Please model this.
Amino acid sequence: MTFRPDMRVAAVLVAGSLALTACSAGSLGSSDDSGGGSVTITYLIGNQDQDIKTANQLIKDFTAKNPGITVKTETRPAGAEGDNLVKTRLSTGDMPEVFGYNTGSLFQAIAPQKNLVPISDQPYVNDLDDNFKKTVTADGQVYGVPTGGYQGGAVLYNIPVYTKLGLKIPTTWAEFMANNAKIKAAGGVAPVIQSYGETWTSQLFVLGDFHNVSAAEPDFADRYTKNQAKYATSAAALKGFEHTQAVHDAGYENTDFASAKLPDGLRMLAQGKGAHYPMLSGAIANMVGTYPEAAKNVGLFALPGDDASKNGLTVWTPNGNYIPKTTTGDKLEAAKKFLAFFASPDGCASLSKAAPPTGPYAVKGCTLPTDVPQAIKDMQPYLDKPGASSLALEFLSPVKGPSLEQITVEVGSGIRKAKDGAARYDDDVKKQAQQLGLAGW
Model:
């Protein structure tokens, strides 16, 4: 189970999924299958409203530049049902010419070497951000291009509160806690917002801290997958649980942390009733939609660790787009052109028309619109600076237990100590690792 479904971020931002639909009216090109050098390809996408809106905008802009290519859309459900459908259609040779799907461990699970067309020889691959490239690479070959921007697991903060109290952006945990102490002493504002009424929101201090884990133990993900590293016995990995406990023990949480939900947390932050909210950047658009002033009043910084020189952002990559090996001839050439459009500034501009970006694009040369919220702008420097961003653990390892959100609620509520919570989580992931048949478990 990945952080994305666990955290229900998609449920916050867009509507839920329905059943598989037939080929939809996504043919926005000026040509068809009737000859004249034209070619038609089909693009398989998710069936959420935003998926369809984004695909239609991309197709409109792509076919305007490529009038000899028509792109139709077909939709699929999300979640486990969608995963199974993708695997089935690949195994039966019934996959459309281009399809959108996950990156990271779920990408590896569809056997890319066997089922997908590598694109390493395409010139636009050099324009893909290195973090993203890692999540769509198997045996040294790159197979996919991104749709959309990164999400960051970070701290959203209220800028007016920082300005009023003269606070600086922290780059170490000690600086962060010192800021919290000043905020609490000033009164009237909760230093750290937590919203355990929706348990998935409790995980950020652990999962958003993975850049710091990687900086301290670069091989942690590999050893973790092989059952050679544990959260409870790794000093770096344990920090996330310790930070969750420390914020509670210091009395820095909002008084209603146990019952508050995501909308409550976003409201507190936007209105300056809370100073910090550990959260995914995907929630920013939802907050700004309800509280427009948050576009300029809320900023973002990476979860700080022990070493300011290694301060950086943990990122969740956008989904990828792939070509199955069953795509051949003129359709293969058309599919490659379609992928090239995704991996270009024109493609990014098309995405920005369809929806506000959740974060910086994973394509070099792409720029964010000038009117994006400040918190989204704050992510860009981390992506631009070498070594200042790294992937969330779920993109580097398939091991994640289902009970993390319940455990972090316990630790953040004072019910369980950090070391005990980490040990419990180590036991939790063992079940999943064994179900996956991983070596060493």
Notes: DSSP finds 22 helices and 13 strands in the chain. The first strand starts at residue 39 and ends at 46.
